[in-house]
Amino acid sequence: MREWEQATWATGQTEAEVIRRVGKCVAHCARRLTRSGDLILLLAGKGHNGDDVRTAQEHLTDRRGELLNVSSPETDLPQLAAALAHKPDLVVDGLFGIGLNRPLDESWIAFINRLNDSRRSVLAVDVPSGLNADTGEPQGAAVEAAVTLTVGAPKPGLLRSAAWPFVGRLEVAHDVGLLPCPLASELQWTLPEDLEGFPPRRPVATHKGSFGHLAILAGSLGYHGAAVLAARAAQRAQPGLITLFTHEAVYHVIASQLQAVMVNVWQPAKKLPGDFSAVLIGPGLAAPDLPDELKMVTRKLWRDAQFPIIVDASSLDWLPLDPVPRNSIRVVTPHPGEAARLAKSTATQVQADRPRAVREISQRFGNCWIVLKGHQTLIGRSSGEIFVNPSGNPHLAQGGSGDVLAGFMAGLLAQPQLQADPAKALRYAVWQHGAAADELQSRRGKWVVEELLGGLGSIPTLL
Fold it and tell me: HSE (CB half, 13 Å, CA atoms) of 438?
């Protein structure tokens, strides 16, 4: 950030102008998190983060803004307590920025703990005060934010699992007057506008054969709903055709819930009966008596198929370590527990260094694409960029959410014109999945996974 800023000042841009723009971004975010007439407590420290917050106050004309300039935590602690007693609807944290690199003293720890103990909703500017922006570790104490609006680009520490309880939802104020970033990183934060124009507009003179035929191997006794969710999500991606193969025991209950999707009973065979452009394997294949032939077909497809293979859920345990065809598309979609089994490690180790887990699993399984699910889902493989997804919320932690994501991904990758850029197709699927959940949460609060299907692919990437 220092190097980026210095390069910006060299162009003639001023710190004052950037602070002005950051202040407007902070105010915009604060307004989005509150309603007209709400009380907002603004905590401003002595540095530029404090300047950002003081500037933001100018743009909160329809809110009741109370500014507390904090220079001495001991002296200002009674004022903080008095302000918190008014139960502000939002607190804006601008006490410390990314320059903090030493442990806080007891007076600052007491100040921050008093704020955290109030349980008020907090918007942190750039980094939650007290958090080390490089390591993600608190320097004795750190503000527990509901939302962190970081400036320019995410700082490495904000992406570490240790920081998540303090960071909350991470958002980026990227258009603040800095010149285009002259630096590169293996981690790339996805912005909605990165996905503008995807999927591309379809030519008018086409037919269903132009957009691929997806095969789905899914569903078993007790887990038939996963197959239905995956199939319906795949429909939202609009491939030309979808055929679902399932166990005879659940055929009727699944077929009765699907119309445009063709449903067949899965029969043991060396290959699938049909000409497909992608195959999804896994949703709902969790019954204890699954035939060995199904696992053998999974391994054969993974080793030999020239078209995309997407493997999800319990079927991840069936993957071989054999090489795959050159330039073939292979995708696995583990949550941290599944990733731990694939990497021969533990979920704690996976979460401690998620990018490393992506690299290691991809390398073990033929340089496949990894969608490491969870907060800040990662999309990447053994080399190259790893993309961090910003959308989604904790209410996605429901059974069936992963089946919806897997189906939507597979529906996209079944389309020949989208296979040229699998990374973008995966990023788009993950972002839409999370954004649909965010839209539901903003409108209803309490929703079920089935409702996700209605928003998939329909959330605009530019507002």
Answer: 14
Domain enclosing residue 387, as ranges: 208-454
- In the prediction, which pLDDT does 291 show? 86
Q: Give residue 461's pLDDT.
A: 86
Q: How far apart are CA 205 and CA 302, in angstroms?
A: 34
Cβ contact 327:319 at 8 Å: no
Question: Mean pLDDT in the chain?
Answer: 95
Count of Cβ atoms closer than 10 Å to residue 156 Cβ: 15
Burial class (CB in 10 A: 0-12, 13-18, 19+), 196: exposed
Looking at the predicted structure, is the pLDDT value of residue 100 above 90?
no
pLDDT per position as a tens digit, 288-304 = 888 899 999 999 999 99
Return all residues near 75 (Cβ < 8 A) that are at least 6 apart. Answer: none
Residues 165 and 246 in one domain: no
| Amino acid at the residue 181 | C
Spatial CB neighbours of 208, under 8 Å, sequence gap ≥ 6: 240, 241
Q: From CA 175, how far away is CA 386, in angstroms rounded?
A: 22
Q: What is the pLDDT of residue 184?
A: 87
Distances (CA, A) of 279 to 199, 224, 283, 433: 20, 18, 12, 20
Residue 270's pLDDT is what?
Answer: 67
Asked if residue 197 is part of any domain, the answer here is: no
Q: Compute the distance between CA of residue 463 and CA of residue 459 in angstroms, rounded to an integer.
A: 9
Within-domain flag for 200: no
Question: What are the structure tokens assigned to 22, written together?
Answer: 């950051």
Q: Where are the alpha helices (DSSP H) in 58-171?
A: 73-85, 106-117, 164-167
Q: DSSP letter string over 17-72? A: HHHHHHHHHHHHHHHHTS-TT-EEEEEE-SSHHHHHHHHHHTT-TTSEEEEEE-S-
* pLDDT of the residue at 228: 98
- 159 and 229 in a single domain? The answer is no
The domain total for the chain is 2
Average pLDDT over residues 102-107: 94
Q: Do 255 and 177 fall within a single domain? A: no
Q: Model pTM? A: 0.95
Cβ neighbours around 8 below 10 Å, total? 22
Whether 352 and 267 map to the same domain: the answer is yes
